[in-house]
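Weekly modeling sync, notes
Attendees: S.R. (lead), two postdocs, one rotation student

Agenda item 3: backlog of single-chain predictions. S.R. asked that every request posted to the team notebook include the full sequence so nobody has to chase files. The rotation student volunteered to paste the first one in as an example of the format we agreed on. Action items at the bottom.

Example entry:
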Amino acid sequence: MIRVRRATVADAPAMADVAEQAYAPYVERMHGVRPAPMDADYAGLVRDGDAWVAEDEGEVVGFLTLVPERAAMHLDGVAVRPSYHGAGAGRLLLTLAEERARAAGHGRIWLYTNEAMVESQRLYERIGYVETHRAEQDGYRRIFYEKELG
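Predicted structure, as returned to the notebook:
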């Protein structure tokens, strides 16, 4: 059974491995460019942010990183091992992101994804995120989304 818990620095290598597996299919679509989450400092995100992992029988199968901001919660990263797609880990993590945003007093949550990640775009739109704009940022073509939390 998949459960979610707060991440520790000891989880950082597993989080990096999840990111490597989850984002590898996009490298070709992005013409050889590695998506930013593949090279993130997960130990730093755990130390300095609000980081969570989904695990199944002790194995980290997904993660969530959040960055509280003044006006809204920034959903900085979410990823699930491909072998766990459809098992509910992503849904648990996205639900937790909204719960954490509400608990911090935020009425909205925002994120961005790469234009090449059409599967993510469809998912975010299906669960109520609305595209706000597109921009090139740090060399990536990103789509920005936000969701009002009731």
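Discussion: group reviewed the output briefly. The chain is about 35% helix and 35% strand.
Action items: rotation student to repeat for the remaining queue; S.R. to check formatting next week.
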